[in-house]
Amino acid sequence: MIDAYVHAWHLAERRKNAGLTQSDVAGRMGVTKMRVSQIENGDVASVEVLARYVEAIGGRLELTATFDDGTYRMGDASAAM
């Protein structure tokens, strides 16, 4: 849980550095400001939600599977939505 919180905190900092408020992101995502706050506190139930948040702050979420013998880039998570 701490890991999720730390990663979410970094995303919140990224949002702030982009000059966006939680209300801005909520509008872009079609959710409430409270939901954005929850996401930024690590409450993310799916890759889809995370991908939508990342897109709303100007990024793109990519998925990579890592195995003992290498990695497999699964692509743009947003494209799968």
UniProtKB/TrEMBL annotation:
What is a single Pfam family found in this protein's UniProt entry?
HTH_3
The GO molecular function terms of this record are:
DNA binding
Q: Where is the HTH cro/C1-type domain?
A: 11-64
InterPro entries xrefs: Cro/C1-type_HTH (IPR001387), Lambda_DNA-bd_dom_sf (IPR010982)
Q: Which domain of life is it from?
A: Bacteria
Cite the SUPFAM superfamilies for this sequence: lambda repressor-like DNA-binding domains
Q: What is this protein called?
A: XRE family transcriptional regulator
